[in-house]
Amino acid sequence: MANTKSAQKRARQAVVRRGHNVALRSRMRTAVKKVLNAVASGDKQVAETEYRAAVPLIDGMVTKGLVHRNKAARQKSRLNARLKSLGQ
Questions:
Q1: What is the pLDDT of residues 39-60, one digit of tens each?
Q2: Residues 67, 58: contact at Cβ < 8 Å?
Q3: Which of 14, 36, 71, 88 is the most buried (most CB within 10 A)?
Q4: pTM of the full predicted structure?
Q5: CA–CA separation, 83 and 63 (whole Å)
């Protein structure tokens, strides 16, 4: 455990921030899964709607520093590729 008062406060803040970050990351993963499930069901309209909702969430995680920008770009690219394959 932390020895100084300031270190104790930082430890408390870290716990709160971690909980917040976990919740945000979970929200992003859920949005990605919604797109994948819509693609799997074959419903292009729903898939496009879910994709449009997921992209800002993914980008928001990058600005908050929770996800690396390359990972976000890769996820968006793969989701978009699945969306495009649905149209063929």
A1: 999 999 999 999 999 999 999 9
A2: yes
A3: 36
A4: 0.85
A5: 25
